[in-house]
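Section 3.1: Structural characterization of target chains.
Under the original work plan, the team committed to producing a structural model for every single-chain target entering the pipeline before any wet-lab resources were allocated. The record below documents one such target. The sequence was received from the expression subgroup and is listed exactly as submitted; it comprises 363 residues.
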Amino acid sequence: MIKTITIDPTSTPVVVTAESVDGKLTLSPNGLMATVGVSTLNISKTEGTPIEQPNIPPTVSAGADQAIKLPTSTVVLIGVASDADGTIVDYSWEKMSGGSAVIVSPRSATTSVTNLVAGAYVFRLTVTDNKGVSKNDTVSITVQAEDVVIPPSDGYIQTFFSGFDKRADITTNNGQYGRGVISTTKFVTGPGSFYSIPAEASNGMRSEVQYETAATNPIEGAMEYDVFYEVIIPSNCHSFQWHPYTSGGSASPGLWHVGSKFAVVRWKNGGLYQQTKAADGGPLMTIPKGKWLKMRWEFKFANSFAYCRLYIDGVLYYDQKPASDSWLGDGSGQYPKIGFNGFSADSPNSRIYYDNFKVYKKA
């Protein structure tokens, strides 16, 4: 049994003096050499065998949370890291949640993030020290939608509204199913909104709601609706169209998809005329997915001096004023269709949602 142990740290080597009852003592400190006596134990440091110290993990900060507002779609993430007993050998940024985004320099302490759309994002920065120990931290980025400036409705009188809150809102007003099926089984922001499901993969498949009442067909007026693209069929389809009462689509303009972009087109005598052709600046804009858009058409049906304007989220994207050729109609009367009309085998996979359809008559 040990009676006392005395350590003198000022001596070289360090002397540990132990007194025991039976005169025996065994001590084996790590990295030390011990000389054992009856009542005295001398301990000295063994040359070339340092005492191993525990690794201190690195510290890391992904930076302060940020909020931006579109049209700004880029942020800079600044990571800060240090290691008290070593060095940082690796940085790694990754997106944990949020929409589409591009981390420009994922293996650098500081990086730009581009291609941000409205929504909430979380990014994580992980750092690793020279002994293989990692630590991480996260930063949140909030992207606010751009202010939408809707053109004024002065001089317009609302004549019709449908919020698509129930199936009757879709099947009334001469609603047609064509060869497809219109469904209200899924709401993106509800209640209200429907998507049309083309059910047959053949030319001219369609799933549309068409409106043939006087309230929905002013000679001069405006139409508004909200649209949400979840799955976009790349070509040969439309999500809005004016159709003449005569058959054959002799003059039926509308919003079509050319590649992954919007285009305003019309049928004329069975042929497709793309009004936003390359000479006119090409298709209007890339169709954003996962975002509600507010569409507004302003128009006048006439054998001459017709016009057609398209606003998307308050921005004028198309303005056509033909002096003749009955561009917006063929003189027989027109009615709008909202829904899907496609011509490719994968058309039934389309998912386009519609909401809040309004019709205005020009006073």
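Residues 24-41 have pLDDT under 50 and may be disordered.
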